[in-house]
Each structure stands twice: as structure tokens, then as C-alpha cells.
Amino acid sequence: MEVCKRTVNDRKGGHAAIRAHDGQLVLRDLAMTAEEDHAHFANEDLHRYFNSNNLWIDLEALAAELRTHHGVLSLPLIRNAKTVDPADKTSTPVIQIETGMGTACEVFKGSVALEVPRSRFLPVKTTNELMLVRSDLYALDDNVELVSVVDHQPDVRLDADFYRTMADFDARVPVAPSLKRAKSLTVTGDWTFGDDVVITGDVDVAAEGSPGTLHGVLGA
């Protein structure tokens, strides 16, 4: 399993761990973790590596495992609480049962984690991450691949009440702010980003005064 060093933006991603009683490599997802352990789960200093979703599998070992278990891998179940309409938090609540392919590492004895550079993984699972990749932190290279042009990633936290869905995000962030000089950006409230916003250092935009539009340089 290819893994990368975790950053503050990877708090919710599944991380690699060693099972205490047998030393087996496992992948732990947030939805598999007790609520009282969520703070420890998100600690990137304690759990330093996360799954990059790139897997290398010995096909002979896979075939043997499938023969043993009637054609099915014994992957742990993941329970996710969601709503029928992800864009409507008031819609009917449901429980989504799923499995993660990365958890297959615990099925095979001798599985290992291989650390790879961040260039092997560029996740966009939330609008926080979408803001990062749409900003000037990234550019297209000669191979038309999206690559980082800086050696850091600021911690971006957007108010889920106003930015969680693509429609909400696009309506409020028609142009991503400049983040090259940013360390962190936290936005609370209903704010629209103008096309000239530059974030420098640590910026915390409070809800007071919203809804409104942000302009110019924010931060020190």
C-alpha cells in the first residue's frame, strides 16, 4: 500500500497502523473509529501515514485468498451515517455500509506500506481540498499534470453550512483566492470571495458581518 506523510488537510483520511496483538499492517478509516478516539485519529503526528489509494497486489496471493473464502475478500465493514440527498441535511438519514479496498492490506500477511511523495496523490474529497487545487498552489506542467508549485499546504477549513456542496462552493468561490503565502484559512459564515483575494499567514474570517464579499489582502 502506497502511503504519504499526513498533513493537517488529511485529518479525516484513512491512516496506516500496526495492529498491536499481531503486528499486522491495517488501514483505519474515520468511520471505523470510536467517537472518543477521533481526536487521536486526526493527530498527524501520532498517525503519520495515510493511504494514497495506490495498491500493489500479488495476483497469486489474491487468487489463493479468494479460493479460500469462496471468491470474496473478508474486508472489514465501514458504517457511514449519511442523508438520502447529500446536499440536503434535512433529508432522510440513512446508514451506508461499504468496504474500502485499502483495508485488504490486513487480509494478506506480510503486507507493507511504501512511502511515496505527495506527487503520487492529490485528493479532492472536500471543498476545502478543492479550494487548494484551484488556487495558485498548483499549476499544469508540460505533461498537463497538476503539480504543486510550493513546498507546503495551508490548512483550509470552510464553514460546512455554506461551502459543503459543489453548488454552494461555486456560488461563493467563483475564483479561488491566492494561497501561496497562506498558513491557514478558516471561514465561518456566508462569505463570497472576490477575484482579488490574497491570503497571507493565518487568517480567520468570522461570521460577523456575513453575508458579504471578501476583497483584497487578508492577514499579515
From TrEMBL:
Enzyme nomenclature, EC number: 2.7.7.9
Gene Ontology MF: a single term: UTP:glucose-1-phosphate uridylyltransferase activity
Catalytic activity: alpha-D-glucose 1-phosphate + UTP + H(+) = UDP-alpha-D-glucose + diphosphate
Keyword Kinase set for record: no
Transcription regulation as UniProt keyword: no
Self-association state and partner proteins as the record states: Homooctamer.
Reported function: UTP--glucose-1-phosphate uridylyltransferase catalyzing the conversion of glucose-1-phosphate into UDP-glucose, a crucial precursor for the production of glycogen.
Family: Belongs to the UDPGP type 1 family.
Protein name per UniProt: UTP--glucose-1-phosphate uridylyltransferase
